[in-house]
Design brief:
The structure is a single chain. The chain is of the alpha+beta class. Helices cover 33% and strands 17% of the residues. The chain is built from 22 helices and 26 strands. It has a five-stranded antiparallel sheet, with helices on both faces. A five-stranded mixed sheet has the order 20-26-25-22-23, with no helix packed on it. The longest helix has 29 residues. The relative contact order is 0.07. It binds zinc ion (ZN) (2 copies). The site of one zinc ion (ZN) has 9 residues, from loops.
Length: 775
Amino acid sequence: MRNFSRRFLKIFLITAVSGSALLLLFDLVFFPLPAEKLSRQSSYFIYDRDGRLLNCFASPDQFWRLPVELDSISPLLVKTVLNTEDRWFPYHPGVNPVSLLTAMVDNVESGSIARGGSTITMQIARMMEPKSRNIGGKLIEIFRALQLEMHYSKNELLEIYFNLIPYGGNIEGAGTAAYFYFGKRPYELSYSEAAILAGIPSSPNNYRPDLNPEKCRGRRDRILHQLHQQRIIDSKILTDALKEEIPTERKERPEYAPHFCQTLIADLSSEIRQGGIRSTIRMDIQALCERLTLSYANVLKDKDINNLSIVVIDNHSSELLAMVGSPDFYDKKHQGQINGSFAPRSPGSALKPFAYALGFEKGLITPASILDDIPVSYSGYSPENYDEKYNGIVTASDALIRSLNVPAVNLTADLGIQDFYEFLQTGGISTLDRKYYHYGLPLVLGACEVTLADLANLYAALGRKGIYRPLKMIMKNDIKKSYDLLSEEACYMISQILSELKRPNLKASWEFTRDLPTVAWKTGTSYGRRDAWAIGYNPHFTVAVWAGNFSGEGSPWLVGVESAAPLMFAVFNQIMQGHEHVWFEKPSGLGTRYVCAQSGLPPNDYCQDLVSDLYIMGITKNTRCDIHKAIIVDRETGYELCRACEHLGNPETVIMQDWPVRLSGWLSNHNITVKLPKHHPECTGILAHGPPQIISPEHGTHFEISENIPAEYQQILFEASSGLRNRKIYWFLDDRLFATCGINERVFYKPSKGNHTLMCVDDLGRSSTIEFIVR
Ligand SMILES: [Zn+2]
Ligand SMILES: [Zn+2]
């Protein structure tokens, strides 16, 4: 007896060991597991921030597959499937000899292969490599099942099973079945729903609820009764579950945010595998934006404006809340599938606030600072205002509110074009693909391309008190780089100015609330009226709108304030409902001071007209007003007197505005200021020397340009002489400031054809003028 059992054990061990060795040999050498066939091309499911399905796209082979982890499948479904398909799954090695034997007996009796006796592992093997249902196929299936059990844990196998199992038509896996039959995630199922899903795979097209609801009900009820018999569910659950309706229609595929979702898939497809993508979109705001865009598009259609895009950002988190790429995704005529939020377009004036912010930040200017608004030329580039008029001098705040071009260009020249360019890059403007000098100063007027998404996110940094964060589009716990782009003080100054802009009058139907939120906002209109922009922000949100045509066609109505701003405000007013109307608090580093109203600088003893202004403590420059001066004049003739000639008249002190030479001529010619009096003609002091004399070129010279020589070698020399020392002179070419330099400095001019007037002015406002011709 003992001997016998020992012998038996020995045979058993030899068989087991050699069997395992054989299996291993086959596994490694002859039939390695085709593991790649266990995962298939995924379809894409994109959810909003709260887990509601926004949109989904079939896999490239047109199947609906949503890979899910075992943890996110309802335990109810797992239990039901195990109970229905393979009760001994946790214990067997891939094959269940008892059920195989039973099945074989059944098959012999019925004369065909009716029942498989398949375990879940064997079913996986069959889905991995579909084989014909004969003995050979069955043997391979058994071998593969043993192999699968060697490679994977029981839980891993269950997960594979639930992701491969067919649920009828092109629906594969429990993740998509739960959605298309019940509109649910696979962890939200009821008993009835779990039973339906457990029942479908054995004959998918037979038991599909949408095709054969009655067969489906019969199958479900049998499964539920079985669960009850095995005491997995009690009578109460059984009765309730049996009463549940069978869904008779497949759920529609939702189509929110089509542009956004497609962009996400294109950009992130490699990152997305398990369970779909949880985006940052807020379903309610997205739906609102889509609705408003569509109805507003109807208003613009008559004005030859066919495309509109919106981006909404949560300023606190930098999360994208809504994105509309075009009014109608399916409008082929107007290229509706283009996502306008990511299309590079010319921003017009929309970048200007950032030049002012930098000017504040660096202490160069304050809101009350005076900026030049006179004709000027930067190596041949002469900016003009929108209305082609000049104001002489304007405050920074006024220049920004009125979106004047000339002061913005002058300011950018003071900042340095490279600094401004680098600021935009640091602020996430990703489309500046050329070097800064290719753009030059026109950059600040929008002579470049930006995307609505980048622009909106740059404005969001103003709403975040200067902290930059990349736009976040999917919910994940990654720590993205964030950094100080601007100081809180500079942002506050800009926000104050931009909130003073008068809103456009919205049609009554667009005004959703009387209690309008305070919004800092700016518009932009590109050259040729091809693009209209409006971007608004407050501490909560940034809303950016672009209007135009993807074809690039312009329209006379494509003006930011007219065609983009109404939609921006419509969205803003609506999304602010339920939010407290808070505004930015004045930062502690920001002071209030009185400045001279004419110069914008802290007053000297002669300034009379003072205004309140903001300044950054310790940073804003502190030089006093140098415009207001006490001048001694002759009471009778009005001539200016100095120490050398005081005795020649009857001296009297008057307070006058003495503007820098570059401005004084223009200002007095346009009656903005009074001309300073002439010096006493009989004075023998230093001021008595005459005006600077132009030595080169000579008056009346004709220059011939040769086409064969590079222009660099044909430059014209500007040179002047003056009796004064250590003074500056100003060259005005054709009434535009061309250069400022020391008296003995030489200036070169790359000639352009035509008749030219050249004026040389010294510090004292004395000038001489010549003319020359270039052919
Ligand atoms: Zn003053
Ligand atoms: Zn004098």
